[in-house]
Amino acid sequence: MSIRVRVWNENVHERTSELVRELYPDGIHGALAAALLGHGFADVETSTLEQPEHGLGEAALAATDVLVWWGHKAHGDVSDAVVERVVKRVWEGMGLVVLHSGHFSKPFKRLMGSPCALKWREAGEVERVWTVNPGHPIAEGLPRHFDIAQEEMYGEPFSVPEPMETVFISWFEGGEVFRSGLTWRRGAGKIFYFRPGHEAYPTYRDPNVLRVVANGVRWAHNPAPAWSDVTAAPNVPVDKAPSKIVAKGASLHKPGEGGFR
Amino acid sequence: MSIRVRVWNENVHERTSELVRELYPDGIHGALAAALLGHGFADVETSTLEQPEHGLGEAALAATDVLVWWGHKAHGDVSDAVVERVVKRVWEGMGLVVLHSGHFSKPFKRLMGSPCALKWREAGEVERVWTVNPGHPIAEGLPRHFDIAQEEMYGEPFSVPEPMETVFISWFEGGEVFRSGLTWRRGAGKIFYFRPGHEAYPTYRDPNVLRVVANGVRWAHNPAPAWSDVTAAPNVPVDKAPSKIVAKGASLHKPGEGGFR
Amino acid sequence: MSIRVRVWNENVHERTSELVRELYPDGIHGALAAALLGHGFADVETSTLEQPEHGLGEAALAATDVLVWWGHKAHGDVSDAVVERVVKRVWEGMGLVVLHSGHFSKPFKRLMGSPCALKWREAGEVERVWTVNPGHPIAEGLPRHFDIAQEEMYGEPFSVPEPMETVFISWFEGGEVFRSGLTWRRGAGKIFYFRPGHEAYPTYRDPNVLRVVANGVRWAHNPAPAWSDVTAAPNVPVDKAPSKIVAKGASLHKPGEGGFR
Amino acid sequence: MSIRVRVWNENVHERTSELVRELYPDGIHGALAAALLGHGFADVETSTLEQPEHGLGEAALAATDVLVWWGHKAHGDVSDAVVERVVKRVWEGMGLVVLHSGHFSKPFKRLMGSPCALKWREAGEVERVWTVNPGHPIAEGLPRHFDIAQEEMYGEPFSVPEPMETVFISWFEGGEVFRSGLTWRRGAGKIFYFRPGHEAYPTYRDPNVLRVVANGVRWAHNPAPAWSDVTAAPNVPVDKAPSKIVAKGASLHKPGEGGFR
């Protein structure tokens, strides 16, 4: 079964910075989409901030198995309604791969329930990515460590919930460390955060980085049917209880009444 | 050091239902506060929905080590600004004990990043609470299982993130099960959810239930100083890097400029 | 790629009890292997205790992607050398599906590092299995709950390490609960424990139970190449350090000397 | 209530190496015990390998709330019977703080169920320890990062089970990273692994390191009564079932017969 991937990019730096445009003439989304096609994904779409509903309408999301997210400068411009739609799809089972500055994106913060803050420095220093979970599917085909010649530094503490798995940790030339590959589940949705990808450097041309993104998409895919009632809180009436019981005692809810939210 | 506890209650059922008022003449908050005093806590305050800022102003929260939360009918009436304040205090280290229908409270949903939905039935059936983690501080002094003669049923799936620890699981007469005691951390804050406590029954007069609440408060207390910069994302300039580096390559951020949110 | 499955069974009850022989004329291993073939697995082998090396020699294990384990009466007869071999293969990436009384099998206890104890009762009572993680691949195609008309009871506390994921919880007619579907990782190996399967009842003819086993095998499969040096503790000499350093200070290890174990 | 701490040390390097003897004239155990007394612990004992039962007889362990473990050269000389005794006490609730080369000690490997392997280099390089979980009790009073001027390098992958919490991560001058502060639970016992402490350097004179050890001991203490039946697998007869049932169907166990192990 083909995995339907959608790469979302705010696509702002590419239009405002000559430097970024030269690095990514087709946008970061374009570079990532091309790389995914090269990694054997057959069904890859892109969406950007400036599109209606940011290119994330109901139909687009319903047709997305895994969403890749890159945002930075314009987190605040993403509409809350779209964020809720994305989040609900994750709960239902859509995979989510959040890249780099996406740590502060609305959907990621919403799903983590924590600040998702960190330290940073833009100095073009070496980032060395270490695989700490070599048997993990996201590490497939990667060396035990690889260097990115120039990257922005992100430093701990990274205020996210304790992850399900720590896959990568980065070492920085300037002396910091960062948990750069982490996984979580929310509802039926698998979430992978991957650190590298500052827009001022050619990170998304690095074969190791692109392989991690591709592996992450594959890992985040949940082939199960959508958990469509994940937000429902159904009443189970007495006569539908799996074991026969008789109602007794006081009652505040009227028969058939919904619960409170 | 004395733990400063605050019990928050929406205090709506107590004013609108004769039944609930008879069960809890001092309100659910009053019953819980009295029980905590009886369990040796010396510093217990209460706050309710109808108070200014719901009794959760900056000063009140700053003076709270552990917040206990009971809400049901009026989740939607809790102001978003207050919710953000509560959530930030949890990230900084305030403990949070969420009771029963508080699974759908705004602060809990916000911290979980998931729907927090479940099944339910109000039939006054037996709930049997099983300790699955007998050495856990929250289980201290409790029997391996205890019955609550009449309770509302909550059934799985309970759509919360995989917990740090599962402390209790409930068996219901009507045939369902529920993970009724779960823990998480968000930032420096410890969170405990405990299921029992439907307002139509005298659950908060049950010594076992009250002991769990008291244990939960004690466990959730983080004596560390507040992690006050938990939401900050500071820049670390090149000359402050722990290991000496020289900036190289392109740069998009101007010196001293803040990061994007 | 075809998943190479091996079903291990101690195969003792089948030879000593008329009752069990009638339920499983081809042995529990035979019943499980047939079911897996029926679920689309093409490459299914079986091994039993009485075979040389219990049918788990180096070659057999090297050709196994996922091992299913059923044992009960003869846990103590499994050779420690074979146990270490199985455990090492799990660390390298072989999946392990442990069934029912296998909670006390040597490989499972060895991988958990905990007692793996529980309560039990053989009374032919109803077990109701609840899905608590509906989007999980192991729950694929299963109803939200299903009954097994007659089963042995296992009750909490189940003294295993906190799992990676809780997939199923069982409700028992006699009043107990049990976390009946749990996952862990050890090294590159994925481990799934599934509770039902007492030899005195036709549990492994139940389509829901067999589907869980099949799903579990599929989930436990790690397609990555074996993490063959998972137990190695290599020295990284100074001249091979990823960043250039100069050795300084005292030293106790001689160049080229191995570490201590 | 006073925490009864016992520091175990193999005490071999101190007797065979002039260098180590000069660093730790009272042994590593002596240095750690003195530091713990200085951190306010009133009840600190030491035990060493050469003592009868390695100083870890039944009575000694029964009187120990938290055990600190340092071993390296002589892991293999620790008797398996003593290891099982230590492990059982951890399951019952004794805390365990494992230091540095203790990653390959028998009790730690036994409790982890995984290889506990890593990379290493003895080059006297800088280790920078980063706090990734600043609100955690084990990080109390520590700076966000601190340097150890000379240490042995340990590098990832560290083949331990995914921890409950990651408290510290180390950066090494030579380019590696390591999760240097990790926690787990096994049964009722809390386990903390802390990386620094190579015998060739004065690491256990470093105030930050000693504070982490002291915090770790405090954190690992479980004040609950021992979970003394943690390894028991009791039968619950039909007439003792919490909910009334009638036995039905076949049975293989005779009444009163124990389960199989």
Concise structural overview:
The structure is a homotetramer of 261-residue chains. Chain A contains seven helices and nine strands; from the N terminus they run βαααβαβαβαβββββα.
Describe the structure.
Four copies of one chain form a homotetramer. Chain A has helices at 13-16, 18-23, 27-38, 58-62, 80-92, 106-112, 207-220, and strands at residues 4-9, 43-48, 66-70, 95-99, 119-131, 145-155, 165-172, 177-186, 189-194. The two termini of chain A are 38 Å apart. In chain A, strand 8 and strand 9 (189-194) form a beta hairpin. Chain A has a nine-stranded mixed β-sheet with strand order 2-1-3-4-9-8-7-5-6. The relative contact order of chain A is 0.16. With 261 residues, the first copy, chain A, is α/β, with parallel strands linked by helices. Helices cover 23% and strands 27% of the residues of chain A. Chain A is built from seven helices and nine strands, in the order E-H-H-H-E-H-E-H-E-H-E-E-E-E-E-H. The interface between A and B is large, with 70 and 70 residues.
Outline the secondary-structure elements.
The structure is a homotetramer of 261-residue chains.
Chain A: E1 4-9, H1 13-16, H2 18-23, H3 27-38, E2 43-48, H4 58-62, E3 66-70, H5 80-92, E4 95-99, H6 106-112, E5 119-131, E6 145-155, E7 165-172, E8 177-186, E9 189-194, H7 207-220
Helix pairs in contact in A: 5-6
